[in-house]
Amino acid sequence: MRMLCVLDGDATPLSAVFAAGHASRSVDIPARSGDVGMSRLDSFIRRMQAQRDCLNWVATQLRDTPGPVLEVGLGNGRTYDHLRGLLPERDIFVFEREVRAHPDCIPGADRLFLGDVRDTIPQAARTLAHRAALIHSDLGTGDHVANAALGDWLGPALDALLAPGGYVVANQPLEVARWKRMPEPAGVPRDRYFIYRATGGGEA
Ligand SMILES: C[S@@+](CC[C@H](N)C(=O)[O-])C[C@H]1O[C@@H](n2cnc3c(N)ncnc32)[C@H](O)[C@@H]1O
């Protein structure tokens, strides 16, 4: 079946999409490859569980890594709310092009980079370069092809903000030479969510 993976896209493992490449074209994806028999609701719930498990695990790893947390993609504020509960002592900076979050989950203006990340991440690098202990990137639109194309730019852009030894938790695979992919926490299936750790200091 020829389909461009749209809507929530959760029934298709990301690995199938990214393995297929991501030029600006549709890709051939079986409607439910991998998650055979799983409804979109099942798949959505599993992705949310994986997201939460990865964030919970990484929060336990940050003791020796000072620095703020970056939430890239506020959405309705669910993971922002979770992160501020997990890491109440950390500053959390948020990147979002259009704020439509729950009113209780909107950061102060001094913590919000409003606009497209292609503009705001380079802006943020002026003050946050190599400072972030944790970056959670969740820019997913459901269009995995567009997400993957953005990912080529996103990895190196986020790297400019990441502290030595800092972690990235992402909804999509990102490639940066100095990042090491970390194993998923127990119970999180491979390629449902992605954890990386910066192994070196990065470029100044
Ligand atoms: C999947 S939602 C994030 C969900 C959020 N983590 C939560 O738990 O509620 C993705 C968000 O990223 C934002 N976004 C997508 N592409 C963006 C871009 N290029 N620049 C800034 N924000 C972007 C969208 O507006 C959307 O709010």
Q: How would you portray this structure in words?
A:
By secondary structure, the protein is an alpha/beta fold. The protein has one domain: Rossmann fold (3-Layer(aba) Sandwich). 31% of the residues lie in helices and 19% in strands. It contains 5 helices and 9 strands, in the order E-H-E-H-E-H-E-E-H-E-H-E-E-E. The chain has helices at residues 14-19, 40-59, 78-86, 117-128, 144-159, and strands spanning 2-3, 27-28, 69-72, 92-96, 112-114, 132-137, 162-170, 179-181, 194-198. It has a 7-stranded mixed beta sheet, sandwiched between helices. A two-stranded antiparallel ribbon has the order 1-2. Helix 2 runs parallel beside helix 3. The longest helix is centred in the N-terminal third of the chain and has 20 residues, at 40-59. The termini are far apart. The model is unreliable at 1-33 (pLDDT under 50). The chain binds S-adenosylmethionine (SAM). S-adenosylmethionine (SAM) binds next to helix 3 and strand 4.
